[in-house]
Amino acid sequence: MKIKIAIGLLLSILTIGCKNNQEARRPISHSSGTFMKKSIDKNKKLIASEEQQIKNIIKNDGKTPYTASSKGYWYSYTTKNVTDTITPKKGDVAFFSYEIKDLSNKIIYSELELRPQTYYVDKQDILIGLRDGIKLMHRGEEVNFLFPSHKAYGYRGDTKKIGSNTPLLITVKLRDFKSEVAYKKEQSDKVKRDLEAQKNAETESNAVPKTPKSTPKPNDTIN
Questions:
Q1: Is the four-CA dihedral 170, 175, 181, 186 of positive or negative sign?
Q2: Is the pTM value of this prediction over 0.85?
């Protein structure tokens, strides 16, 4: 009798375990996949809308020849260097200034506000569009870039003046660029010169003889 009871209990436990295992193997929900698809479709529509805005600007301009980049933005030249062939690459340091406008040509950040930039090519975080665009430029050129928002500040904006999903017109002046090795050597030499100049100035200052204070002579006249 006890054996039958034990067997019955064992069968009950196994049956419950099987039910639990069956419940654990429920079909995976596809809601996350649906959300992802909707998000992708939304982004595609946004990009298409912004690109159409940019194409309309180019069409309405009519006078300025723009080039469509394979990376998803457009650019035109204000100043073009037709003699140089080299452009900045990884391992170089680029010196540039830039100005940011919206597509209605209204200044958001002036060149003065943004100040001259020293950029270690492909080694520093800058806008995706600028990261690529600067590598198209030759020394001394000024280029106008039309960037869709995903090539600029994206859906977050810059949390200051640039809102979410804002396409931009960014004008860049590439003043110069050189190898990182050459730039670091220049900086090192400059520090040495400054220290030497400071040392010489201190030496000259210490070498100047101090004029002793004159002691007043006693008055020999007796009144």
A1: negative
A2: no
